[in-house]
Write a structure and sequence with these properties.
442 residues; 11 helices; 16% strand; four-stranded mixed beta sheet; alpha/beta
Length: 442
C-alpha cells in the first residue's frame, strides 16, 4: 500500500504549526481521523496498520471497543463532573474497588488524577507524606512525565529539562541497560549487580543519607528511554536495598501496565511488588485518567493534605470501568494471546537482526518490544538518522511506528491485533529496514 498525502493534510499541519505550542510531532505527516481496531485512518483517507497504539493508550484497539464507547455515551448524558474530591460519587468507588483487585494482596488505596505525569506527582507527594522523608531516587534514562515534579524524576534527554532546573531533593542512579551497560559489564547479571552496588555504595553511601530517602521511582521496562528491559534479578535486589533502609518502591506502570506485557503489571514478571504503583495511558481506553495505588499499610492522607479538581471525572471513570470489565472477563485469553504474539514478533525480529547489520538489539516482553538500530553491530554507534528514514518509509508504506531512546523503534500494536495485521506490519518494517540497509551499501 502506498500513502498519498493530499492538500487537506498539508493545510491542517500548516494551521497546527501556527497556533499549537508543541514540540513532539513525528517527522511524517499523520493527521488522525478515525480508527477501527488494527487500523488507523488519516484525513486524506489513507489506511495504516497501527504499531503505536497511540502511545500505548489503545491497548484494546483503536476506538474499537464498543463497550467503552457506549459507557462514555451513557455517562455523558447523565453527569460528567462530580467534584469527586469534595463530594461523594459511587462510580469512582466501584471502579477503584475493581482496580485494586488487579494488584497484589494488601493494596487498597487509590487516588484518581487526569494523566500519567499527575499520577507520578501524586506518588511523589504521597511517598513523602507516608515516610516523612524528603529525597527521591530515580534512574538515568527514565521518563516519568513533564510537569515539574515528575520532570525532576525524568532523565532520558536533556532537552526535556532545559531551563527547568534545579530539581531539589531528586537524585539519579544508573539503570542496568544490558546492551549498553554503563559499567561495561560483560553479562546482564554483572550489569545488574554493578547497578545495585553503585546505588548502595555510592548514592546511598556518599550522596544522600538513606534514612532521608522517601522512595525509589522506576519503570519496570524503561519506555521513552528505549524500551530497556533490566536483568531478571534487578528488582529483587533493589527491593532488598529499599527494605533495608525503609525506602518505598514506586513502580511507574503508565506505559508498561494494563496487560501490555501479558500481565496486568509488568513488575509481576520479575516476581516483586512495589509499595506504590502509578497507571494512566490505556487505563481509560482513550479517555484521560491517571491513578496512584498504594498499600493499605502506608495509611491515608490528612483532610486537605492532597486533592485535585477533575480526578474521578465520571466520563473517564465510565470508560475505565468498561475497560477493566473487559480486561477482567478476558484476562486469561489476553495473557495467552499477548505471550504468543510477542514470541512470534520477537522471533521475526531476531531473524531480521541476523540479516541486517543495522539491527543491534531486539528486546521486550509481551507486546512491548523494540529494536535498537546501530551503524554497525561491532561499534554500536546509534543510528538516529537511519531510524528517521526507516520510520518515514514505513509510514509511506502504511505502517505507523514510534521512536524511543537514541535510535530504537518501539513496536506496540494493540493487544487485540490480528495475526494478519501483525505479520503485514512486520513485513512493511522489514522492507523499510532492507531499503535503508541497501542505501548504506551504495
Amino acid at each position: 500500500m502506498k500513502i498519498k498525502i493530499d492538500s487537506k493534510t498539508k493545510r491542517i499541519i500548516a494551521r497546527d504549526q501556527k497556533v499549537m505550542l508543541t514540540t513532539t510531532r513525528e517527522h511524517y505527516p499523520f493527521v488522525a481521523d478515525h480508527g477501527d481496531g488494527d487500523y488507523i485512518y488519516d484525513v486524506s483517507g489513507n489506511k495504516f496498520i497501527d504499531f503505536s497504539s497511540f502511545i500505548s493508550v489503545y491497548n484494546l484497539g483503536v476506538n474499537a471497543n464498543k463497550e467503552i464507547r457506549e459507557a462514555i455515551k451513557k455517562q455523558a448524558d447523565k453527569l460528567i463532573h462530580p467534584a469527586f474530591t469534595d463530594f461523594y460519587s459511587e462510580k469512582p468507588v466501584s471502579f477503584a474497588e475493581k482496580l485494586v483487585k488487579m494488584f497484589p494482596k494488601g493494596f487498597g488505596r487509590v487516588f484518581f488524577s487526569n494523566s500519567g505525569t499527575e499520577a507520578n506527582e501524586d506518588a511523589i507527594k504521597l511517598s513523602r507524606i507516608f515516610t516523612k522523608r524528603q529525597y527521591i531516587i530515580s534512574f538515568y534514562n527514565s521518563f516519568h512525565g513533564r510537569t515539574l515534579g515528575s520532570l525532576g524524576l525524568t532523565s532520558s534527554r536533556t532537552i526535556q529539562k532545559k531551563h527547568m532546573g534545579p530539581f531539589p531533593n531528586i537524585v539519579h542512579s544508573l539503570y542496568p541497560y544490558p546492551y549498553r551497560c554503563p559499567f561495561k559489564s560483560s553479562t546482564p547479571e554483572e550489569c545488574s549487580s554493578a547497578a545495585i552496588d553503585y546505588l548502595e555504595s555510592y548514592l546511598l553511601g556518599k550522596e544522600v543519607p538513606p534514612e532521608e530517602v522517601a522512595a525509589i521511582f522506576f519503570e519496570p521496562i524503561q519506555g521513552e528511554g528505549g524500551y530497556i528491559v533490566p536483568p531478571k534479578d534487578f528488582f529483587k535486589e533493589l527491593k532488598k536495598v529499599a527494605d533495608k533502609h525503609g525506602i518505598l518502591l514506586v513502580a511507574d506502570e503508565i506505559q508498561t501496565g494494563y496487560m501490555r506485557t501479558g500481565k496486568f503489571l509488568a513488575l509481576d514478571h520479575f516476581r516483586v511488588s512495589a509499595d506504590i504503583y502509578t497507571m494512566a495511558k490505556s487505563l481509560g481506553g482513550g479517555v484521560p485518567i491517571g491513578a496512584t495505588i498504594s498499600k493499605l499499610s502506608l495509611g491515608n492522607v490528612e483532610k486537605g493534605e492532597h486533592a485535585n479538581t477533575f480526578g474521578g471525572n465520571l466520563l473517564a471513570i465510565a470508560a475505565a470501568d468498561a475497560s477493566i470489565d473487559y480486561i477482567s472477563k478476558n484476562k486469561r485469553s489476553l495473557e495467552l494471546n499477548v505471550e504468543r504474539k510477542g514470541k512470534h514478533m520477537i522471533s521475526r525480529l531476531l531473524e531480521m537482526q541476523d540479516r541486517y547489520e543495522i539491527i543491534g538489539d531486539v528486546r521486550g516482553i509481551g507486546l512491548m518490544i523494540a529494536i535498537e538500530l546501530v551503524k554497525s553491530k561491532k561499534g554500536k554507534e546509534p543510528a538516529g538518522e537511519e531510524r528517521s528514514r526507516i520510520l518515514e518509509d514505513a509510514f509511506y508504506s502504511g505502517l505507523v511506528l514510534l521512536p524511543a531512546g537514541l535510535s530504537s523503534i518501539r513496536i506496540i500494536p494493540p493487544l487485540t491485533v490480528s495475526d494478519g495485521a501483525l505479520n503485514e506490519g512486520l513485513n512493511i518494517l522489514e522492507n523499510s529496514i532492507k531499503k535503508e540497509s541497501m542505501r548504506k551499501l551504495r
